[in-house]
């Protein structure tokens, strides 16, 4: 479980094809020090909002294996060495919850359609699959590339979010350009409500 509060941007060091799967190696050396919370093999780490398991550690380099299902739901297959992703370690009991509950399970991809700037703020408008859009509501929560954000608008065609200067600086969202694809995870409560409505026909 995560919060959507990004700890750091980390760099992809290597991408290795293993049949239909991939092994991605990220340099996690610039994560903030956290006493009593070292990264260990088997740990869950959210990278651009996707929960991945550390399978090998070599100094600051952490290895992650991605199967075909994960690659089909994410843009990791197009990620190149040198590119940055947002990184967050999993919650511990007693940790502060500053964002919202994020599972790290990517629901699908959104596409940045429009950018509007107001002073130091930016408003992003995204398109997304209709089933995901119907799990969004104004003032509700959405996770975009691992970042917990508040929805400004949401309808059957698009959704929008407002980004403060701090978010633009410390996450990869500040580098987004129109046409870029992003990982989306809708709020878990919206998923349960949608499932109940489906069950009732």
Structure in words:
By secondary structure, this protein is mostly beta strands. The chain has four helices and twelve strands, in the order E-E-E-E-E-H-E-E-E-H-E-E-E-H-E-H. The protein folds into two domains: 8-89, Elongation Factor Tu (Ef-tu), domain 3; 108-199, Beta Barrel (Elongation Factor Tu (Ef-tu), domain 3). Helix content is 14%, strand content 42%.
Largest sheet: 6 strands, antiparallel, barrel
Straight-line distance between termini: 31 Å
Overall geometric form: globular
The CATH class of the largest domain, by name, is Mainly Beta
From the structure provided, what is the oligomeric state, counting identical versus distinct chains?
Answer: single chain
Strand order of the largest sheet: 1-2-5-4-3-6
Query: What integer value in Å does the Rg equal?
Result: 17 Å
> What count of domains describes the coordinates?
2
CATH architecture of the largest domain: Beta Barrel
Give the DSSP E fraction (strand runs of 2 or more residues).
35-45%
Poorly predicted residue ranges: none
- Indicate the structural class: mainly beta
Counted beta strands: 12
- Specify the number of helices: 4
Quote the average pLDDT: 92
CATH topology of the largest domain: Elongation Factor Tu (Ef-tu), domain 3
Give the topology.
Blueprint: E1 8-18, E2 21-27, E3 44-47, E4 50-58, E5 61-66, H1 68-73, E6 84-89, E7 108-118, E8 121-127, H2 130-133, E9 141-144, E10 147-154, E11 159-163, H3 165-170, E12 181-186, H4 188-199
Antiparallel strand pairs: 1-2, 1-6, 2-5, 3-4, 3-6, 4-5, 7-8, 7-12, 8-11, 9-10, 9-12, 10-11
